[in-house]
Amino acid sequence: MKLIERYAAGDLRALARLITVVESGLPEAGALLRAARRLGRRSRVVGITGSPGSGKSTLTDALIAQLRAAGQTVAVAAVDPSSPFSGGAILGDRIRMLRHHADTGVFVRSMASRGALGGLSNRTLQVLALLENFGFDYVFIETVGVGQSEVDIARVADHTVLVLTPNQGDAVQAFKAGVMEIADVFVVNKSDLPGASRLVRELRAAQGLAAHTAEDWLAPVVQTTASDGSGVDTLLARLEAHRAHLGEVRLEARRLERTRFEVRLQVHERVLRAAQAAEEDALRRILKGEASPEELADRLLSLEEVQTQPLR
């Protein structure tokens, strides 16, 4: 049986192999991705983001346990930061989810961010497509947690959860970074610590400063203690409420935006490759003032030859 046929039939090993093919950028990756997307399966895609140490992985683990108890299947793409020097990553998030390793209803894949400033690389979006079309009920994307640059998850997920913790200045940082706008649900994790109630009040006060209508979604604030599972059922209920609020039309719009973002990442990757391929002589000419960076960029990208054509 072909790899894509085993994948369509629900073979987890075939899924793992396909992800490896995509992450490695092998020549057959494009055709396999197209075949997977033609299956047209849909999952609830939930983004989990927040500052390092906020308990994102522990919260994801608690969500998995709750969903599996309800008979739901779950996949997790856990994105770890890449070293700017070696390009490697620790890929340690799956360590926190080891209790699910023998459960065939749970699939966890750790991935490197590959230096993407927003925490999501082109490969992450391709892996997401494989996970969703495999047919999991829920797909969680747990992002790097790099702070102010990490807003791309809102372009990818159906629902975005922003995880904050008390007494770490997270509320102030959220206001400064502009990540308040990306959250569909706020989670105040480690809510058994002092300062949790104050953080909840600050978040609600900040929401009150923004203009909104009766039809707008006002992101609820949920208190959790992921280590013992407290509040996780409430979080899932709020996610379901947000899905009902969006409806199929707005969910489809979000999926189209995800595809637009994936195309943008492809373009960005190609531009970076072109810049890396610049000849040293051309760079020296720019350094001497004999040419401009704009001229070299135009030549590398052959912009004068680019024409808009329909996809075939």
UniProtKB/TrEMBL annotation:
InterPro entries in the record: AAA+_ATPase, GTPase/Isobutyryl-CoA_mutase, GTPase_ArgK, P-loop_NTPase
CDD domains (UniProt xref): MMAA-like
AAA+ ATPase domain ranges (all copies): 42-257
Protein name, as recorded: LAO/AO transport system kinase
Family: Belongs to the SIMIBI class G3E GTPase family. ArgK/MeaB subfamily.
MF terms in GO: GTP binding; GTPase activity; kinase activity
Top-rank taxon: Bacteria
This enzyme's EC code(s): 2.7.-.-
Top EC group: transferase
Keyword terms: Chaperone, GTP-binding, Hydrolase, Kinase, Nucleotide-binding, Transferase
Phylogenetic lineage: Bacteria, Thermotogati, Deinococcota, Deinococci, Deinococcales
